[in-house]
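Convert to structure. Protein one:
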Amino acid sequence: MSAPRKLVLSPEQHRELEHERDHATAPYLRERAAALLKIADGMPLSVVARQGLLRRRDPETVRAWVTRYEAEGWSGLRIRPGRGRPAAFSPSATGSGRGQS
């Protein structure tokens, strides 16, 4: 069993996360900020993942948020371009379809 995951925030980081939790335009960013604040306040990561958010999350997902925040700060919590399923069909990738054999 691994040691409990902890997060230590400076007063400035704590204020930033509180602000983002209350004012971020994207709901997923508000959720991630809330999770980080709860972990920094001493709530176990597994409890935050299981019952501390509006939706249940996999503890490894919440652990990844903590790790990315520690490595990259607030910008590390944003969804990166290129994530998700690629488009099944892209007209621009096939050309115009005219005059091609």
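Protein two, convert as well:
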Amino acid sequence: MKPNCILLIACAALLSVFEARGAVDIIVPQGALEGDGNSNVSPLNSGQTRFQQVYDASIFAGYPLGVLIDSVEYRVDSLSGHGFETTVFNVQIHLSTTSRTVDGLSPIFVENVGSDDRLVAGPAPFMLSNLGGGGVQGGWGALVDIRTHPFYYNPAAGNLLLDIIAPNGAVTTAFDAVDRPGDSVSSVASYFVNPIPSSGQLSTVGMSTLFAFEPVPEPSAVSIFVLGIVAAGVAARRRIRRSN
């Protein structure tokens, strides 16, 4: 067999390892998993908003090598929300790893942002929609869809921070949320202030969130296939030399 054919086969096998990981969904906090939340938030309301929410690293404790976050999703509140579809302008959505704890965020926004801060949506216009109605029955809508460039998050490095900046407002509906002290989320927000101030109001409220992600694979599986590629290449070259 030609060396390049062996390489292609080995690469295909290696690709299958990554594809076999499969996507995983996690709904947080616990109160959102149990059903409709007992509160709501408006991180994209018609006023000027900055909203930060921290997620405890324990949510991803089962993935010690980290995860590649493909999307962050929300659902409309069952009482104060309504289905919608709109294009938002100037909105910025960031993800980062923060050293701040749940219920331990600083009221000063910049003090919560991690060094790996990344803009994952905006400020260019993008579409937001959730036409299914409110609550659990309405289903989830993508706040950010970053499958083409997922965000790498390592729970060993700290907690996860979602940071939404909407200087002009965007969506008038409310999102489902859970207000439960001591759970895995908390937030800090500023609403209806122009320009958006540098600090906000601390709260135990957390937006109901669905994370879709792929676990980073164990290195052992990857190493086996990489070694297989090298060994196959070496063996093929030896056979070619002996036949000459």
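The domain at 22-216 is CATH 2.60.120 (Jelly Rolls). The longest strand covers residues 67-74.
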